[in-house]
Amino acid sequence: MKLICPDCGQVDYAIVNGEVLAESLFEDVWFEVRITKDKIEAKVRDDAKDYFETFNKKHFLKEARKAAYKGEAQCPHCFEFVKVNFQ
Ligand SMILES: [Zn+2]
Question: How far is the CA of 24 from the centre of ligand 1 (A)?
Fold first, then answer.
């Protein structure tokens, strides 16, 4: 399983704009998704960690993973939308 950017090719990780998950709550909050052992793992970026503590973390990390599967994660280099390649 790989994360593929149409411009950069395979990328180590992708970023999900928090606004995709909850527009008003997560303005300027970014999540990082990466593939670990053929699964997508998500975490919130360090700069938003404290803010994120007050939310249902499990729920929103799951939503971030879902967003990545749906092709809503972006390349950290060029911000194109990244596809999940299941091969
Ligand atoms: Zn890219």
Answer: 27
Q: Judge whether 81 and 74 are in contact, CB under 8 Å.
A: yes
Q: Write the DSSP assignment of 3-23 as a string of letters.
A: EEETTTEEESEEEEEHHHH-T
How remote is the CA of residue 85 from the centroid of ligand 1, in Å? 15
Residue 38's closest CA among 87, 4, 75? 87
What percent helix, strand, coil does the chain show, rounded to 5? 30, 35, 40
Distance 72 CA to ligand 1 centre (A): 13
> pTM of the predicted model, to two decimals?
0.93
Q: What pLDDT shows up at residue 74?
A: 98
What mean pLDDT do residues 60-66 have?
A: 97
Q: What pLDDT, in 10s, does the model give residues 19-37?
A: 999 989 999 999 999 999 9
Other CB atoms within 10 A of residue 9 CB: 10
